[in-house]
Amino acid sequence: MKPVPHATSLRRAPIQRRSAERLTRILDACADLLDEVGYDDLSTRAVAQRAGVPIGSVYRFFGNKRQMADALAQRNLERYTERVTARLEEAGDGDGGWRVAMDAVLDEYLAMKRTAPGFSLVDFGNQIPVGTRHSEPNHRVADRLTDLLSGYLERSPDDDLRRTFLIAVETADTLVHLAFRVAPEGDEKIIEEARELLRAYLARVLD
């Protein structure tokens, strides 16, 4: 199982600081509007107005709203990775093993689902499938976690570890979405069941 390449949605990558700041405003506006109007009613023109930029600035980066949602999903993954990394650094290098790592991975995902604008609709691309069929969102996440956690766990990022994390990510994704369908902030009992299920599976594979 080779790592799945990350999808690239930008027509043109920002080079100057001002261009990067404009892209940030566009994605922030996209995230806010997703929460307010949903994906179906999202438009590039509305995003431009909310971001305070000319419509041409949006089209400079994106051909359509689907590419914009994909870029937002990729940014979510980058921010999620940063949050998990910071959490593991606080825990100490390798202290607690995979159990600490698993809690960090699940807890930071739940925190973003509850607080990050637009995340409930896009997350990493699962709610609104984005990118190509060769870069499915859960493969993106599993590959990123494999690369991030292999060193922490002192494991080789081989096919077996990638498969393990893909199964764990698919399982967590299904159960967390169930929890948030049952309750707006996520049904705690379902989340705890998901945590116990993941612990049991990972213990069999990683202990």
Give an overview of the whole structure.
It is a single chain. The protein is mainly alpha-helical and 207 residues long. Helix content is 70%, strand content 0%. It has nine helices and no strands. The chain has helices spanning 17-37, 44-51, 55-61, 65-91, 97-115, 119-122, 137-152, 159-182, 188-206. The longest helix has 27 residues, at 65-91. It is globular and about 55 Å long. Mean pLDDT is 87; it is low at 1-7.
Index terms:
207 residues; mainly alpha; 70% helix; globular
Proportion of residues in β-strands: under 5%
Helix content: over 70%
Helix and strand composition category: mainly alpha
Name the helix and strand elements from N-terminus to C-terminus, one letter apiece: HHHHHHHHH
| Number of helices in the DSSP assignment | 9
Subunit arrangement of the protein = single chain
Q: What is the CA-based Rg, rounded? A: 18 Å
Amino- and carboxy-terminal Cα gap: 22 Å
**What general outline do the C-alpha atoms trace?**
globular
Low-pLDDT sequence parts:
1-7
User: Would you report the number of β strands?
Assistant: 0
Determine the mean pLDDT: 87
Please describe the biggest sheet, giving its number of strands, its sense, and whether it closes into a barrel: none
